[in-house]
Amino acid sequence: MTIDLTPYLTDAGPKYLAIARALSEAIRQGELTPGTRLPPHRQLAETLGVSVQTVSRAYAQAEKMGLVQARIGSGTWINALDDAKESAYLRGHEPRQEHPLIDLSIAHPVCPPGHHLRFRQALAELAEHASPEVITANRPIAGLLHQRERASTWLTTRLGVPAEVDDLILCNGAAHGLMLAISTVVQHGDLVLTEALTDHGLIALSRTLGFQLRGVTIDDEGVVPEALDVACRRFKPRAVCLTPTQLNPTGATMSEARRDAVAEVLERHGVWLIEDDVHALLEAPGLTPLTARLPQLGFHVTSLTKVTVPGLRAGYLTVPRSQLHHTLPRMRATTWMATPLVFELAHLWLADGSVEALAAEQRELLGERQRLATRRLGRHPFVSRPSSLHLWITLPGAWRAEELQQHAEQEGLAITTAVPFMVEQTPPPRRIRVSLGAEPDTARLGEGLARLAGLLDEAPPPMMQIVY
């Protein structure tokens, strides 16, 4: 195609940067839309009167900025807005602002000062008593035996997971565990079922590993068993990935009866289950994982990240015995073995009761914030759990989620739409996800919720874009 960047070009700085900035401005103005294929390097070079090397550097810079994506054999394409934001997020923190946004967008546990003190005390104790093998070990690949033994006991007694020591792999967080589980039984091109709205990390994994992901209808308890049965019969999936406890972003949590029904469908079809149970400790004891019902078909993944401190990337993957010889080589290929020092801290906190104490405190803190949200948001309906990280808010009137997100940013707020969690390319629900844990200061969180309520009380402003 032919594009005209001349209205957006400036003389400031190197030419390649000027071209990259011109692309950014053309996208912002709507001149270039997501999915547009950019001209070949030589064609744009001739149009702008620059060298091919300059255009190549400009496209590379635009890709670093998250604006475009280069596809081998296909050319360079304009990214969707959410892809650009995701790229920026992955590159690191945004530049410091004089008045940083109130963050209602990140799935983050509440991390009060007491957590920092407990962390420092634990490090001091490890300095005195940690096993020497923590810094000398490079095997077993599954993790140090004493760390797996402690985790096995905890997983079995607290979560109800049939996690024998020999079936347990320590991994660097739940995302790593999910990747190991999926890659064990799913090949490039295979089809995997999940909830119609699911964690964006799973969607990213499908793109990375090259498997097809298809969504199944959900309700306020998560995936609907009858819809799952139909999808299994129709699509013959290789695996099903489910989050039965506090599904991100809706917070849906399966009752025991729903779990029984879902497990019956999976067992009847003989399909692999990959269970993301990362939010298990945000619920009081009593919910039994799906994997406990399907020990021969189920991979169970959880971690301590959502209930202790977010930097404690201690993940636990329970693998069906028949698949261990496939999973362990993938563990070795991706990280050799999980970081022993991280799991020595997790081992200490599991042994002295800190994990349970921190989980109970997290549930209490999130409960207080949920009640604060109820007061601040007033008449605006939302779905949540008493100890959930999020609110799932229905938008009023004529608001569209993307418009509200933009106006919220102008009001100093960061929120999340449904788009990153959508498996299928369908019209997004008129909802936003609001997270309650990232802001450590409750007063600042309350101010953010009050600003959001003010926006929701108003009608969206008229469209300013002129269409010819």
TrEMBL record:
Species name: Halomonas heilongjiangensis
UniProt record similarity statement: In the C-terminal section; belongs to the class-I pyridoxal-phosphate-dependent aminotransferase family.
PROSITE patterns associated with the record: HTH_GNTR (PS50949)
HTH gntR-type domain segment(s): 13-81
Keyword DNA-binding included in the entry's annotation: yes
CDD domains for this protein: AAT_like, WHTH_GntR
Domain of life: Bacteria
InterPro entries: Aminotransferase_I/II_large, HTH_trans_reg/aminotransferase, PyrdxlP-dep_Trfase, PyrdxlP-dep_Trfase_major, PyrdxlP-dep_Trfase_small, Tscrpt_reg_HTH_GntR, WH-like_DNA-bd_sf, WH_DNA-bd_sf
Pfam families associated with the record: Aminotran_1_2, GntR
GO molecular function, one term: transaminase activity
Name of this protein: PLP-dependent aminotransferase family protein
Keywords assigned: Aminotransferase, DNA-binding, Pyridoxal phosphate, Transcription, Transcription regulation, Transferase
PANTHER family (alphabetical): HTH-TYPE TRANSCRIPTIONAL REGULATORY PROTEIN GABR (PTHR46577)
